[in-house]
Here is the input.
Amino acid sequence: MTPTPSAHPSARSIADDIRTGRRTAVEVCAASLAAIASNDPRLTAFVTVTGERALETAARIDADRARGAGLDRPLLGVPMAVKDNLCTAGVRTTAASRVLADYVPPYSATVITRLQEAGAVVIGKTNLDEFSMGSSTEHSALGATRNPWDEARTPGGSSGGSAAAVAAGMVPAALGSDTGGSIRQPAAFCGLVGLKPTYGRVSRYGLIAFASSLDQVGPMTRTAADAALVLEAIAGHDPHDATSSHEPVPSLRAALGRGVVGLRIGVPRTLLQDGVDQGILNGFDAALARWTAAGAQLVDITLPHTAHAVPVYYLIATAEASSNLSRYDGVRYGARASLTREQGLRDAYMLTRAQGFGDEVKRRIMLGTYVLSHGYYEAYYLKAQQVRTLLRRDYDDAFGLCDVVAMPTTPSPAYRLGEKTDSPLQMYLEDIFTVSANLTGLPALSAPAGLTSDGLPVGVQLMGRMFDEATLLAAAQVLED
Amino acid sequence: MPTYEPVIGLEIHAQLCTRTKIFCGCATDFGADPNTHICPVCLGMPGALPVLNSQAVDLALRAALALGCDVQPRSVFARKNYFYPDLPKGYQISQYAEPLALGGGIDVEVDGSSAFVRLTRIHMEEDAGKSLHEGFADSDRKTYLDFNRAGTPLIEIVSEPDMRSAAQAATFFERLCQVLVWIGVNDGNMDEGSLRCDANVSVRPVGQSTLGTKAEVKNVNSFRYLQKAIEYEIGRQIDLIEHGGRVVQETRLFDAAQGKTYSMRSKEEAHDYRYFPDPDLPTLVVAAGRLAEARAALPELPDARRARLMTQYGLPAYDADLLTQSRELADYFEATASASGLPKAASNWVMGEVLRTMKERAVPITAVPTTPTALAGLLRLVDAGTISSTVAKDVFATMYESGRSADEIVESQGLAQVSDTSALEPHVAAVLAAHPDVVEEIRAGKDRKFQFLVGQVMKASRGKADPKVVTDLLTRAIG
Here is the structure.
């Protein structure tokens, strides 16, 4: 198995093949299931594989096609994996937590419904750090996922299962979710295109919340064109999500191929002085060189408040998470601790949550609870929100000088499993380049930018103006030629 | 021994009469089978998100405007975090630091003296579900939960501590309830919990400006109980202080059967609710246009209508008060008054027969089948002397039952008063002949016996005789 883009067909070519009759949806689906069967026992990308359902859906697509129906569906017959924090009606959705180990949602997330309407075949649910809290997919109640490029290493996280599934060629495209880098960092570690859309661009309805003001669902694919295809299918206002935007979704596919001539790329050089791996810097500079060769200009920018981004992120994200995860109390659904006759309501809560959550989740709930506590709210949460505003202003200023901001996605390439699990703080600091996009709401994409000398993928990150995913995708595509 | 002054503030939770819940499309019907009006949103399923019901906002705005509040152009929904089994998400969505409306107030009149009670704020929030601790075979070890009520839209109306007696507080609650029902924001069904009141009560020596320590009496759901609960609480606190004790800040419940309040939990063990703005809901922006529309759609309010009934129809205050107990009753009166041209008679009839019948049959004015036009027809017959008031009451009962008009009933049952002297003279002659002794007594000066003779003639005419004509005939005959 080679985790290189050229080795596997793209989502677009699969849809075209099925549309023109070169392959059937059932054949494609079966091939995808076979790839999962042979690779996933080593990689653990999937939490649940819904083979039977997928084949039924594929057969329906073939039957429709035979009648000439549904041919205009952009993801016609494309097998897709979705992160297991996206609710799928009738299919177990765990968020990689013991507390939801047997939870079967009664409804599907809006993004799932939209994928299905676009003709995609959901083939399974992928592994993640429990409730998306982590950046290595090691904090999963269902076991760690491995990186297809080097199975001793992490695929990143929290959308590590989706990244591994695409990188290993099990599916051409997957959905992840990104709260502080959970799409972009695993995309970087696995040599993929990963896009965190503008906050509000994609519905969060049915996405199991980690931090509501930061969470977005987005595509993880091998090419920019496929990312555009998937984003177009899932984007747009949803009446079930009050934070989803009414901003019209432009034709992203049309924006592809428009290149980067005249594009002003802002580079915050001061951020790259310390702690960034040389292999990463080399890949980053090579990407900048390719863009300038294709007609872009580089502009020096500063983003003075970036140093505060990680602490601000961990205050806001944990505060929201502590509240979002209160619903896992064992009362209405999910795992419930068994009690002795002497134990009461308080025990029911404490035991259910003590047994149901892993250590990283507990750590963040406690941190967030503290942040919101009486007497600390002003000092922490409110202050963090103020810094968030300053951070947004940094980017407003930057976008006066440039059209996109470029930086590495991660300070280092994929690390070894277990390498950072003992030091949560060390792991948090790895988020330095990704959290700003979530705090500001801006769209951000990670694109493959070659390999390190050890043969590990490097990711370059582009951030754009609000709702300008098109420019990011067009620029990412330039790196593919 | 100092004289004590009670200080009372109220917090009233009023359910908004929306068709659906505040953040989802589930119905708000009361009395449905348990857990039938539920969905992923109001059950707090993973991934479900709230979307604000615009009708709930409209009703809350209407309440705020009717109570004279300043509606805030921007208000924010926050999360109040605590664990309880009937609270699905582990937090209640409620407005906290930035509520929908500030200020306002209403006039409250007790024993002829009027005072303005100020409001602090009105904010919107969702209700929780219901814990059922009793009534099941295994209630000794299980609590059952019904989430039909979870997500019902509420407004919380908070008053300033402006009230100085239990009676004043009860009247305030009653007036507030009247206004909310009047403007169609609340259905007034306290038995179903659509209005709930908490009272903050403290006492202090007269003349002292700082407030005493307060106790909060929770969930009192009738005007009468509120008054009793506060009266008890005032007495308890004064007694405590007089005996060298100290009032502790705590939450208390009212036991209606015992007429006492008892301690539920002290504030020292109170929760830290960790309020913060709900990131799932955008800031609620009330545009000037929407506010103007809500203001324009506001009906004439009870106080204004009371005043108008007095000036326009010349009614006494007593009548105006009674007729404005509900907007529908006032409408009924005004329609009757204008159809008949007889406002005072209309007022007497609505306050008399109509209210009596409604009470007897336990129906609201909207369920009274006799229309104002039909009632006006009856009033005109009385005014014209065609029937007596006594007969009219029977006719009204028949109208209510049959839906026929007063004219029809009087006609078909031959109830019109007989004022034709030639038809009545034989009855007069017969009565005089039958009671010569009475005639003698009257002639001897015992005037009060006269009514007896009138009654006898009325009886002989089977009630149809016009009493005025009978009186004339008898006077003339006796000389």
Chain A touches chain B at residues 85-87, 93, 95, 100, 103, 105-107, 109, 204-209, 211-213, 239-243, 319-320, 322-323, 325-327, 329, 331-333, 341, 345, 349, 369, 372-374, 377, 381 (CB under 8 Å). Chain A has a mean pLDDT of 96. The first strand of chain A starts at residue 46 and ends at 49.
